[in-house]
Write a structure and sequence with these properties.
With 299 residues, this protein is mainly α. It is 73% helix and 0% strand. It has helices at residues 2-31, 36-54, 62-80, 90-115, 117-125, 135-158, 167-199, 221-237, 245-277, 281-289. The N and C termini lie far apart (82 Å).
Length: 299
């Protein structure tokens, strides 16, 4: 009927207005004010909640990568929509590296889950919690990823105030360079391991490496690249933190959290490899030669 059509049209129009209002509020809070991290949290949650409902382990794997990508895209559209400002400044390099990091990691983990049966089954094995009860997990990791990306938010907010050849700009450039090195190192290390595992017809329980190339730098260069990337974001954004307690606290919690996770993952993987391959010469020779786990051992 005509009345039903009118009601339906009004509802759709109201929903469109509400969505537009929410987007405007999101952009405004990202651009300035004390609720920027909350806005990041809202963006990350839109990705993490549905992915975690589908597969619980995606909250810290595929959702990790695509959540970071979503945060980067939100910041890009907020600060560069219609902008004619020079793009290749240190804060912008931090942003580009963040988007690349998220896209690369999310795509790699999704590809691995789709093509490697053992990984696919491993992801399924984590589905032990009823779906609605997974929402607090998704929200908590979304907040954590928002903390990790907080330096990029503040770097972009303060980008226009950076003076060329100043100490602050030099620190930001150094951080951006470190982030790029970190994301490239992790990309190469992940790719090398994936190809070695995929192309080696090994007997089950046999250590196949990789042991050459980037894996002569340390035993887990992919974890090292991850730490360097997030450290680079922190260093690159720090000059823009100023006296903001929110920026310092959230960014520091994010950096400490990811370092603790990577350090713990390195220790657990070393222990598991030693238990599984400790009696195999190929592993013991590599472990003796490459003594650094997370970081290269120089002395």
């Amino acid at each position: 009927s005509t009345s039903s059509l009118a009601v339906s049209t009004a509802l759709r129009g109201g929903a469109a207005v509400t969505a537009a209002t929410m987007m405007d509020s999101l952009v405004q809070n990202l651009q300035a004010g004390p609720y920027g991290v909350v806005a990041l949290w809202a963006v990350a949650s839109t990705v993490l909640v549905p992915l975690t409902l589908y597969r619980q382990a995606y909250s810290f794997s595929v959702g990790y990568g695509f959540g970071v990508l979503a945060l980067g895209v939100a910041l890009f559209t907020t600060f560069f929509a219609g902008s004619t400002a020079p793009f290749w400044t240190a804060p912008n390099v931090l942003l580009v590296s963040t988007m690349f990091y998220g896209l690369r990691l999310g795509s790699f983990l999704l590809l691995r889950n789709l093509t490697v049966e053992s990984k696919r089954e491993q992801m399924k094995s984590f589905d032990k919690t009823p779906r609605l009860q997974r929402i607090p997990l998704a929200l908590s990791v979304s907040l954590f990823y928002s903390f990790m990306c907080t330096p990029v938010l503040y770097a972009l907010r303060g980008g226009a105030n950076f003076v060329p050849e100043s100490i602050a700009t030099g620190i930001s450039v150094a951080g951006a360079a470190l982030a790029v090195v970190g994301v490239l190192l992790e990309t190469v290390a992940d790719g090398q391991k994936f190809l070695v595992k995929r192309n080696t017809n090994n007997v089950e329980g046999e250590f196949v490496g990789p042991t050459d190339g980037i894996y002569q730098l340390c035993r887990h260069p992919n974890y090292l690249g991850e730490v360097l990337f997030w450290l680079g974001l922190y260093v690159g954004g720090a000059p823009a933190f100023g006296t903001s307690a929110i920026a310092w606290i959230c960014s520091s919690l994010g950096l400490y959290g990811i370092y603790a996770i990577m350090s713990g993952a390195t220790k657990r993987l070393d222990e598991r490899q030693l238990e599984n391959y400790g009696n195999q010469e190929s592993y013991t020779a590599w472990r003796e030669k490459v003594q650094g786990g997370l970081f290269p051992k120089l002395f």
